[in-house]
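User: Structure tokens for this complex, please. No commentary.
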Amino acid sequence: MSTEKSGKAVVDSQEDPRGRILSAAGREFAEKGFENTTIRDICTLASVNVAAVNYYFGEKHRLYIESVRHAHEERSRQFPLPVWADGTLPAEKLRGFVGNMLERMLGFDKPSWQVRLMLREVLHPTDACRELVEDYIRPHFTVLCNILDELTDGKATPAELRRIGLSICGQCFLYHSAGDVVGMLIPPNEIKEMHNPVELANHITAYCLAALGKRVPLSVEVS
Amino acid sequence: MSTEKSGKAVVDSQEDPRGRILSAAGREFAEKGFENTTIRDICTLASVNVAAVNYYFGEKHRLYIESVRHAHEERSRQFPLPVWADGTLPAEKLRGFVGNMLERMLGFDKPSWQVRLMLREVLHPTDACRELVEDYIRPHFTVLCNILDELTDGKATPAELRRIGLSICGQCFLYHSAGDVVGMLIPPNEIKEMHNPVELANHITAYCLAALGKRVPLSVEVS
DNA sequence: CACCGTTTCAAACGCTTGTTTGAATTTAAG
DNA sequence: CTTAAATTCAAACAAGCGTTTGAAACGGTG
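Assistant:
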């Protein structure tokens, strides 16, 4: 039995109060957004007094900014940019990249709070967004564009590569951010069979390869 | 000069107070979301007393549900499902459909408050979502799937058609919901040239046609 | 121990929120 | 006009919020 008093769950203890607040805040903001998260909730989760957040961070808004930064820093540290063995085919890299992105965005169970917080920031940008884009999103997006460059044998312009890259991101994005609506539009058994990172990655990759002429067209399915 | 008292703008008068509240609420909810919109703001915009919203709708949550319904009903009435002349090629229908969707989602200037409210509901579903999906989204999505069915000469299964349909929606969706981040990732001049409904519809349509083998691959651009 | 800067805490403050109230005003029918 | 229902209004209410306060508890140093 640990040291918490009430029935409420508590964030990983054995840590600095500042770190506990940052972690608790990240989880709460990821779950409920900035406005719907109360400092009292965060402090309960972190097992600290309400005044602690003002002591360490000054104000709620600053805490939010810091927790977004904390989220993508932690994420970058734990999961560095993907690399591949020298001989890997571009198509294989693409499938790997997309599968990876979908795993992060959908999770085999549920996305990590770090990813959910970052995606919330993408949907509703605040002051924390610019840094998130430069330090986390752009590097990943650049990797994707480089794969596409290889795939098209350097025949496409950077602008075209970016456009195709966005098309790929858009598809992943939909399944994350509009997942509930997708679940209403698609029959349940189809969801169960197809709606997992692996199957979706196969589809999105195939769609892209076919569009680039690196695979037979989609309407002629290969099994 | 009209009848408003303060400097605040007012929703189209010459209407039922109930209608004025519904319209004002829709605009405010679309702009700021449920939690960040205050009943007082709505009532100021509608030129009614704060008590009126409770008199007509009981509670804020009910007003929200009603205003989402109001939004998609109005939208369906003003812009019925698209239809095409008999001989129209499927590829032409697809371009028309995608262009139409992008115009609604991005707007030549800015999307209407009705669309913004609906897309907010897609991102963060509430009780109003199910009806929105069944009455508005599903009919449109079905039209898209039918076009794709024509395009593939009936060779694709319904599940495949839906998957491709979602891929198309996902791309449009990204430009709407993550527009700010896209704007940070892409060079400004590229945004200016390409980031409008017409150009994006061309790209998304071409991407799809190429993937289905109904057009030369994307990496071999046709000008 | 005595001292002092740092950290924690319960309590309260001031403000905004959704909602209610009870009286005033308008509307429509007899 | 009279009357009663429907509608509008200014004011208040209770609850929740972020933030502040001032004292208590802690921790290292001499």
